[in-house]
Design a protein that fits this description.
15-stranded antiparallel beta sheet; mainly beta; 15 strands; globular; 316 residues; Lipovitellin-phosvitin complex, beta-sheet shell regions
């Protein structure tokens, strides 16, 4: 029996936005923070070729700098059940990010404050204006979030505080997602000295739209030139969550039959400044059903694809 809902309302879009913004943040520089006590594990694979360098953020160089980090996010979704495609309207491109304005030195690193920028929606060809308006209404306004954190020279974060400047419940839900997953803003560096060809893996836990996700990121260092580094990143995601609440329908749940996520990207960072350039493609595939043992013909298959381009520039 095909009884799973496929409707989209504002609450549904908020859950999707939380997922998109969290995935996008893996390409952001450390402008947020992990909760006290890191929820990630870092393991070095290959140390790479000589010469090797102990990669560290130049925290003295960060002090006094201000930067705007911008993400341009495109997304698409497919749904099907029993081999039949369920139409989903085309989704517009979103553009937004964070401003890093206040950075000061501490005994163990730096203390920084960042605030969300205004988000924009691009209404391209094939985009339903009503859907764009719904999405635009769900996006946070400029300054809706303020994030305070401390960071050490390896990108480890602690003492997180996320402030919300509005009573809008949708913005509050997005802010809560950022608060729970603030360590996604950090790009941790290995303790050991490494050179070109080095690899390290970061394993961390996060919450994506009410689903507990375990994410592994495999970094491959391609080049070190002064304080600038260039590397590739590959992502894999899995979950042990077996049930989730349907977005926009409180109290109604579905079983998660399967979930997988994969992604790859390329990044360039200057360790002496709070900025990053990069791009990433991510795909999440989830099978949902009214019960875990439902046959294939009664499972709703959702596939979400995201493209994220990140850039940064000094603030005047």
């Amino acid at each position: 029996m095909r009884t799973l809902p496929s409707r989209f309302n504002r609450a549904s879009w908020t859950a999707i936005l939380a997922s998109v913004l969290l995935v996008g943040s893996v390409l952001s520089h450390p402008v947020g923070a992990a909760a006290d006590g890191p929820s990630l594990e870092l393991t070095v694979g290959e140390r790479g070729s000589e010469p090797r360098t102990a990669l560290r953020y130049d925290l003295d160089g960060w002090v006094g700098q201000q930067a705007r980090i911008t993400m341009r996010m495109s997304m698409g979704m497919e749904q099907s059940m029993g081999g039949e495609t369920i139409p989903i309207p085309a989704m517009p491109v979103m553009i937004g990010g964070v401003d890093v304005r206040d950075i000061e030195r501490t005994e163990g690193g730096i203390r920084l404050v960042s605030a969300s920028t205004a988000y924009e929606v691009e209404e391209g060809e094939g985009i339903d204006p009503a859907m764009a308006a719904m999405l635009r209404a769900s996006l946070p306004a400029a300054g809706a979030f303020r994030m305070r954190a401390e960071m050490d020279a390896r990108g480890n974060m602690q003492h997180t505080a996320v402030e919300v400047s509005t009573n809008d419940p949708m913005t509050a839900q997005l802010a809560d997602s950022f608060s729970q997953n603030a360590d996604m803003f950090s790009t941790p560096l290995p303790e050991e000295a490494v050179g070109a060809g080095a690899t390290w893996t970061v394993r961390r836990s996060m919450d994506m739209g009410g689903v507990g996700i375990v994410q592994e990121e495999r970094y491959t260092l391609r080049e070190v030139t002064g304080t600038r580094i260039r590397f590739d990143v590959a992502i894999s995601q899995s979950t042990t969550t077996r049930e989730m609440e349907i977005p926009g329908m409180p109290g109604q749940t579905v079983s998660i039959v399967s979930f997988t996520g994969t992604g790859s990207g390329r990044m360039t960072m200057d360790l002496a400044s709070p900025g990053v350039e990069g791009s990433m493609q991510v795909e999440n595939r989830m099978e949902l059903a009214q019960r875990a043992d439902a046959p294939a013909g009664e499972r709703l298959v959702q596939v979400m694809r995201m493209g994220i381009e990140t850039s940064s520039a000094p603030l005047p």
